[in-house]
């Protein structure tokens, strides 16, 4: 059997580069609660990402839950059904009712032209997702939020390092959440971060992620345990040293896919966004009706050859039992998202993916298209 090719793989710097960090943690005996590496990673990420206030978390789901708490969001929140389920779970854990709106057929992000029709007197916020690292229509969303007095929290789990018109996408909205899970382009094994606009809000977030503690005897509210530990933070600092190599490796894989698959009938490649940088976090192709076989047939063929492509995002969040009873979950309300969820297939992309293994993936896709193998 061919070796397994995962859909993604964390970049792992040489172990001998990580050991000095571990030695310092062992010697200091400080393993959590805002140690040296935690503070250093926050500062370094602010500089790297071009933001002023960032709070590290043990994972992005807890960051989303805490963001909603910090913003005191209640009632209904407009969001997308086309995302990882944690986006909507964070609303559920806060007792907030998600209202699903359809997605744009090109960017696959929340369709800003459909948001206003979903606003009710109970609507308090919008929770869009920069899907696959492609920026949402942030200008349109901002205009709608300002007009109706709504808060905006961006799920930017895929959007590490992405810029729009020269500005970090993390500057838009009231807050943004990043994921540093092992599947992401920048990772701390597990982890995440919450980006906010001012120092006062950051202090509140830092209290909430530490059980609500302000000091040894003062608790200001029902916080949660969302702190990032020193080992995660140290690994993040090391990852930052290799970001150029990581970005170049992903761009190389993206370029080879585009060159080999650009003329395949019925196969839509990921869009190249205007006025925005790409971080190549995913490579989502769409298998349309003009392709000889279905998306699932291509998925099965890849799996048979030990290629772990993923159907991100299928099923839609709105189709899971917890949410499918909501009026906004009706398929008639989400025709674009419903169609795309049956078309999209994320092909493997990560720096360590070799040309030989990538050729194997490409040849399987071409064979399902009824085409001859490409020239390496």
From TrEMBL:
**InterPro entries from the entry?**
DegT/StrS_aminotransferase, PyrdxlP-dep_Trfase, PyrdxlP-dep_Trfase_major
Keyword line? Aminotransferase, Pyridoxal phosphate, Transferase
A Pfam family of this chain: DegT_DnrJ_EryC1
One GO molecular-function entry: transaminase activity
EC number(s) in its UniProt entry? 2.6.1.-
Family classification: Belongs to the DegT/DnrJ/EryC1 family.
Return the protein name: DegT/DnrJ/EryC1/StrS family aminotransferase
């Amino acid at each position: 059997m061919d070796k397994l090719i995962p859909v993604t793989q964390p970049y792992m710097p040489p172990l001998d580069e990580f050991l000095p960090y571990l030695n310092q943690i062992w010697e200091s005996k400080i393993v959590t609660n805002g140690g040296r590496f935690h503070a250093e990673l926050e500062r370094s990420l602010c500089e790297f990402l071009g933001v002023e206030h960032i709070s590290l978390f043990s994972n992005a789901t807890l960051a989303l839950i805490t963001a909603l708490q910090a913003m005191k969001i209640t009632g209904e929140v407009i969001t997308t059904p086309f995302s990882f389920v944690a986006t909507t779970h964070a609303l559920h854990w806060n007792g907030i009712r998600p209202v699903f709106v359809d997605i744009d057929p090109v960017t696959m992000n929340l369709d800003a032209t459909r948001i206003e029709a979903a606003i009710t007197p109970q609507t308090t916020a919008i929770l869009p997702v920069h899907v696959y690292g492609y920026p949402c229509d942030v200008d349109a969303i901002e205009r709608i939020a300002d007009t109706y007095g709504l808060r905006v929290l961006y799920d930017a789990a895929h959007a590490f390092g992405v810029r729009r018109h020269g500005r970090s996408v993390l500057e838009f909205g009231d807050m943004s959440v990043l994921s540093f899970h092992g599947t992401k382009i920048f990772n701390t094994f597990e982890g995440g971060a919450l980006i906010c606009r001012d120092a006062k809000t950051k202090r509140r977030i830092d209290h909430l992620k530490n059980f609500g503690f302000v000091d040894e005897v003062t608790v200001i509210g029902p916080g949660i345990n969302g702190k990032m530990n020193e080992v995660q933070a140290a690994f993040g600092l090391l990852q930052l040293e290799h970001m150029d190599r990581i970005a170049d490796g992903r761009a190389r894989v993206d370029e080879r896919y585009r060159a080999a698959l650009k003329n395949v009938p019925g196969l839509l490649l990921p869009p190249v966004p205007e006025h925005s940088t790409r971080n190549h976090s995913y490579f989502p192709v769409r298998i349309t009706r003009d392709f000889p076989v279905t998306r699932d047939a291509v998925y099965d063929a890849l799996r048979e050859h030990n290629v772990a492509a993923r159907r991100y995002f299928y099923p839609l969040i709105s189709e899971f039992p917890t949410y499918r009873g909501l009026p906004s979950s009706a398929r008639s309300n989400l025709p674009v998202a419903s169609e795309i969820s049956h078309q999209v297939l994320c092909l493997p992309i990560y720096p360590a993916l070799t040309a030989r293994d990538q050729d194997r993936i490409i040849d399987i896709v071409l064979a399902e298209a009824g085409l001859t193998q490409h020239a390496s």
